[in-house]
Design goal:
With 148 residues, the protein is of the alpha/beta class. The chain has a single domain, classed as Dehydroquinase, class II (Rossmann fold, 3-Layer(aba) Sandwich). It has 5 helices and 5 strands. A 5-stranded parallel β-sheet has the order 2-1-3-4-5, with helices on both faces. It binds 1,3,4-trihydroxy-5-OXO-cyclohexanecarboxylic acid (DQA). 1,3,4-trihydroxy-5-OXO-cyclohexanecarboxylic acid binds next to loops. The site of 1,3,4-trihydroxy-5-OXO-cyclohexanecarboxylic acid has 10 residues, from loops.
């Protein structure tokens, strides 16, 4: 059975109470529960982690190489600032799909650039919590080589 890591970046622990008009009313736990349900349907094993720290996210990506087949990653604010996270994504041998709840291209100009997306297999944004859902489907299809 394929193993997928869902990795959430900084401030996403506050989902549900944090700017709900932009990020929705579901908590992080609520999103993880919905993803667990979908994972069961897709016959994959899910591990969900969140960190507010750049170094811990880098360590989580390095660890994912041992035992995980792919990663669905929301780097949150580090998307726009972190060369180190981009390098970590590029360094590991498993595919990473970047996801964002909001459409980063329709927001402030500093959010229009993702430093991390270029090292990822692909990026989804703007579909609320369903960006994660579609990201999960994308990584599974990628691993099953159903995406060329
Ligand atoms: C985010 C978008 C980022 O610009 C922001 O810093 C976040 C969340 C999203 O999921 O929409 O923290 O990654």
């Amino acid at each position: 059975m394929k193993k997928i890591l869902v990795l959430h970046g900084p401030n996403l622990n506050l989902l549900g109470e944090r700017e709900p008009g932009i990020y929705g009313s579901l908590s992080l736990k609520g999103i993880n529960n919905l993803l667990e349900e979908e994972a069961a349907q897709l016959d994959v094993t899910l591990t969900c982690e969140q960190s507010n720290s750049e170094g811990e996210l880098i360590d989580a990506l390095h660890r994912a190489q041992i035992g995980q087949n792919g990663v669905v990653f929301n780097p949150a604010g580090y998307t726009h600032t972190s060369v180190a996270l981009r390098d970590a994504i590029a360094a590991i041998q498993i595919p990473v799909v970047e996801v964002h709840l909001s459409n980063i291209h329709s927001r402030e100009s500093f959010r229009h650039t993702s430093l991390t997306a270029g090292a990822c297999a692909g990026m989804l944004c703007g579909f609320g919590w369903k960006s994660y859902l579609y990201g999960l489907h994308a990584i599974v299809e990628l691993l099953e080589e159903r995406i060329v």
